[in-house]
Amino acid sequence: KKDLEKDREKGKLLFNKKNFPNQQVNQEIKEKLILLEAKIKEVKEKINSFNNKQDQKRNQLFVLQKNLQNFQLKINELIAQLNNFKINSVRQEAKLEDLEIEIRNNFGNLKKIKEYITIDSIDVELILEKINLLKKQIDQIGGIDPEVEKEYAETKGRYDFLDNQINDLTKAIYSLEKVIKKLDIIIKERFDKEFKNISIKFEEYFKILFNGGQAKIIKVIADAANEKNEKIIKQEQGLEQELETTEKLKINENIEQLDNLIKIKFLQKYNATGLTGIEIQATPPGKKIKSVAMLSGGERALTAIALICAIISSNPSPFVVLDEVDAALDEANSERLARILDDLSHKTQFIVVTHNRASMHRANILYGVTMSNDGISKLLSIKLDQ
Prior knowledge:
The structure is a single chain. This protein has 386 residues and is mainly alpha-helical. The chain is 69% helix and 11% strand. It contains ten helices and six strands, in the order αααααβααβαβαβαββ. Strands 1-2 form a two-stranded antiparallel sheet. A two-stranded parallel ribbon has the order 3-4. A hairpin with a 5-residue loop joins strand 5 and strand 6 (377-383). It is elongated and about 160 Å long. The termini are far apart.
């Protein structure tokens, strides 16, 4: 508008000065008119855009007003429902109070009933019928003596305590039987393995000491031990089945007492190896006898030494003390014994009390007592490898 007013004033000045426009002035005016028309068009477009935005906002306002009315209607409905719920809650509270009063009058302890929670569905009519039936039975029975109720509570407490103790003892017995069974299996396996090794080594050392011959150790098993073991295993399996059924069913006290007797007999009879002893058979070269009782004193000593060395070879100790074990042996047998001890010395340490030259010759360290010319005893230690 300011540009138009300026142009108009310029035009007035030009005409006032009586100067007629030339061709250049006309061209400028036309260009300005074009610019003005463009500005006018731009202003109109802005006005139209503004009007469109106003229409859009007006439409949005109408939509929001409509939504507001719908929300108001929903709020009114919810308020109506809330009022109905409040009325129903008041009615339910009244019913609950009446029910609590009835429970207090009939049972006197409302706390336990409140703590009781059930998940299953409840048939109210059926429960009411049962309640009425129980009430009639209570009326027929009459009142309960407080002393009887007290005595019942004491008896029940005592019974529950003893029942728990019995269950604990039964479980302990059952677990101990399992442990005994496992230990017996382990003992039998280890015993058979070690017995076999000892028997092989005993025969080997016997042949070394006697320079031949035969020797072995035999297990002495009670008569029909295998049959007893099979019966015991079957008895144990049947016992486990009976325990499972009796623990689940718990028919009566007689069955429990019978199970306890079976357990006791089982523990008394059960034996992992069935072994009652060991028999030693030794036959020196050139003889036909097998019994150890028929051997001479030296042969018995050699047989015992062979058995001891076999046991040491199978289950070595940290150290072994041998006191005059070679006293009854001649030099050749002493040499053989010394060779066996030398062979076992990598498993255990031997402390040998001896006067035998062969045994002393095989020793690593020698301790002894000697007497010089002045008659004074002295302790002497010698490392023979030095």
